[in-house]
Amino acid sequence: MAIFASGTGTNAAKIIEYFKHHAQIKVSIIVSNRSDAGVWQIAKDNHIPALLIRKEDFVDTKSLLQQFSILDIQLIVLAGFLWKIPAALIQAYPNKIINLHPALLPQYGGKGMYGMHVHEAVIHNQEKESGITIHFVDEKYDHGRIIFQAKCQITNDDTAQSLSAKIRVLEHQYFAPQIERLINSTSE
Is position 21 annotated as part of the catalytic site? Predict the structure, then answer.
């Protein structure tokens, strides 16, 4: 699999750790759009090749698809990747690109709804629960078919920061096992 990440890479690290000794599933490459992303150190520490992608190379996916073919990439996992996936990449990997969203879609999704923006909106609207959504990626932000959701309760004392911590626990608990379940179900 390929992991795309734009930030600190905590979810990428958990996925790498989960599959480190797996017999059939391997993280083959990390792709990032930010040269200052923490995920670079995670890739280095785990001896996983990493690729910095420029916007123009991402939109014209030929080079990326060639590299993925050489690496035999079967699944693309978005773990905090903030660019919209180009249609050509989605067409090349139909139902093979998944994303983790820090809310219960279809609520609190769409352009600009990532990270603390999501948690601030959830708290502002006085929701009683939030959670994570793992979904297939299509041409719209946070829109593809839902694979899995997990929920957490929100108390009156919660802030965007405390909700973020609750969501991070769910992400780390469920993302890698759901990736494994998805891969196993498609290979049977």
Answer: no
pTM over 0.85: yes
CATH 3.40.50.970 fits 2-101+133-149+171-187, yes or no: no
Task: Give the separation between CA 153 and CA 130, rounded to whole angstroms.
Answer: 7
d(CA 170, CA 55) in angstroms, rounded, equals: 31
Question: 29: helix, coil or strand?
Answer: strand
Q: Give the Cα separation of 104 and 102 in Å (integer).
A: 7
Q: Give per-residue pLDDT as tens, 122-177.
A: 999 999 999 999 999 999 889 999 999 999 999 999 999 999 999 999 999 999 99
Cα 117 → chain centroid = 16
**CA–CA gap between residue 69 and residue 65 (Å, rounded):** 6
| Domain edges within the chain | 2-101+133-149+171-187
Q: How far apart are CA 122 and CA 92, in angstroms?
A: 34
4, β-bridge pairs: 31, 78
Which residue out of 21, 22, 47, 101 is catalytically annotated? 101
Looking up tokens 């480190």 gives 20
CA distance 140 to 142: 6
Paired tokens of 42: 């995670």
Strand ranges (DSSP E) for 90-160? 97-101, 129-136, 146-153
